Amino acid sequence: MNNTHTPLFDADRLAALRHGRMTPVLSDDDMLKIAEFPRERAKLDSLRLDYALSEIDAGLDAYQRRAGLTAAYPNVGSNVVYPTLGLAGEAGEVANKVKKIQRDFDGVLNDAARRAIASELGDVMWYVAQTASECGLSLGDIALENLAKLADRQARGTLRGSGDDR
Ligand SMILES: [Mg+2]
User: Fold this and answer.
1) Average pLDDT in the 94-117 region?
2) Which of the 8 DSSP states describes residue 93?
3) Spacing, Cα 88 to ligand 1 middle (Å)
4) Which of 13, 55, 68, 70 is 20 to 30 A from 1, alpha carbon to alpha carbon?
5) In this predicted model, which residue has the larger pLDDT, 139 or 154?
6) CA of 90 to the centre of ligand 1 (A)
């Protein structure tokens, strides 16, 4: 084993990876180091997670901007009430579609119902994005903070139960 190896990720490369400016492409030499040094392997796993999270962050912010291009309601940009009401309404439409599966199809989800639910979930997503925009919030930040909150609860064994601050 080579004990005089240089770190796999120097500070510049680490920063570029964390900010999503480069994909974690690994050379053969990198792969050798990873195979030899468990600590490098753990670091790579953590970087892969960071990279995946930065992709989620950027993708959701891009979606939020795109959703905003089709906003057409009174006082867009200073009207949080409209998209909030829309969000509640569309969530109700999802529930109604699921309810009708119980009533008409003995609770069995068919392709038509699946497509109808997908369409309503899309409407929910649009209103979530637009409600966030009206509050000056980043959809990517919201998603990552939520993932972090749930991962923390999972780590502490408090996923089940109730209360916002558990
Ligand atoms: Mg709808």
Assistant:
1) 95
2) H
3) 11
4) 13
5) 139
6) 5
